[in-house]
Automatic annotation (TrEMBL), chains A, B:
SUPFAM superfamilies attached to this UniProt entry: cAMP-binding domain-like (SSF51206)
Recorded superkingdom: Bacteria
A Pfam family it matches: cNMP_binding
Matches recorded under Gene3D superfamilies: Jelly Rolls
Alphabetical UniProt keywords: Kinase, Transferase
Highest classification ranks of the organism: Bacteria, Pseudomonadati, Bacteroidota, Cytophagia, Cytophagales
GO molecular function: kinase activity
Protein name, per record: cAMP-binding domain of CRP or a regulatory subunit of cAMP-dependent protein kinases
Length: 192, 192
DNA sequence: CCTAAACGTTGTCATATGACAACGTTTTAG
DNA sequence: CTAAAACGTTGTCATATGACAACGTTTAGG
């Protein structure tokens, strides 16, 4: 647990200009949670009120389409932040599920405290805005890649740009991230 | 030209808490440009230094994949803002083109002035952050829709949620936004 | 106003991928 | 440890979509 807070402190050190003392104050707003694989953190149909720092493990954001297939929007490995962002922003019912894809240690801040921190620590707000910008850039890249490339090229793209996903994440989940079925992914891997 | 500035003033009125005087000051940072259809505002390979308000007309953000096909990332109709956002954020060479899809009247602010305005007018910064959040939400939605739906359902989705695109925009450009060829789009429309 | 280019539609054909099933392997829960 | 479930792979078959071409219509530029 203490290690998790240390990782979060380091995350702020590396990504903000906050002083040690301020970092202490900020991280005290987060509460620790250890979850098992498949533990559900945010549900479709509910409004998301939390932001998550992944200290160890991996979270996955996904939705289920009308055919019942999962589509993965985002993975968050250790030392990254995530939420059911669309619902967190709009405060409308989430279409997303956010779940632990591995046993994970999390530090969680609720939305109210998060926005309060913006007042006291503008650097936290700046960090959030950087997160949003990066999330947008990443999402837009996926639109281009997935609209413009065939399956095999999407796979190659992820191999090159997000290789951790292929080693860490189950094929099924990677397939749902690549926009294809697991059997298609399996055949494409055999072709490489 | 004056009408364009009036529209921008109204845009700030409706989307920020700025006073009339502040709005005057902010809009004076923008310069007016009238462009013909197909005029190129931002190019692939160059770093984007501007943000655009569309007073009349329509801009289109797109990239060209390695097969030479266009993929449209975003349309901006009148009274909305746009840029080659990924490059604007990262200040790296753009993969995107930004071009006038109709004859358009634009008000343009350069990046430096834009960020300067953040200091004097925090409401402008807040507006930018709202823009980013919305851009992310929209982009993420496209990822889910385009990964999870077949062509016919993507078309129906746009008919329901962005109907203006289908009346205003050429089929070819809509097809490149939907991630399909123009001939496929044409056949799907015939099927409806 | 006229001509060439771009566009939208429709047809044919090729192909990437989904749906489904079978099967062995791995993981999980009790 | 054991049984059941989930997973990954591979096969077959059906289908949505891309590639390409033909053609009439619309648009843009001189």
């Amino acid at each position: 647990m203490d290690k998790a807070y240390l990782r979060l402190a380091r995350y702020f050190q590396e990504n903000t200009a906050l002083s040690e003392a301020d970092i202490e104050a900020v991280i005290s707003l987060f509460h620790y949670k250890k979850v098992k694989r498949h533990h559900m953190l945010e549900q479709e149909g509910k409004v998301c009120k939390h932001f998550y720092f992944v200290a160890t493990g991996c979270l996955r954001l996904y939705e289920i389409d009308k055919k019942g297939n999962e589509i993965t929007g985002k993975f968050a490995l250790e030392d990254s932040i995530i939420s059911a962002i669309t619902s967190f922003i709009t405060q409308k019912k989430s279409r997303d599920f956010l779940a632990a894809h591995e046993p994970s240690e999390l530090l969680i801040i609720n939305r109210e405290d998060f926005y309060k921190a913006f007042q006291t620590f503008p650097a936290v707000e700046a960090l959030y805005h950087k997160f949003m910008e990066f999330a947008f850039v990443h999402s837009q890249m996926r639109v281009y890649i997935f609209l413009g490339m065939e399956g095999i090229d999407r796979l190659k793209w992820v191999m090159e740009h997000e290789p951790k996903l292929l080693t860490r994440i189950s094929s099924k989940a990677v397939a749902s991230y690549l926009g294809m079925t697991n059997s298609t992914l399996s055949k494409l891997k055999a072709k490489l």
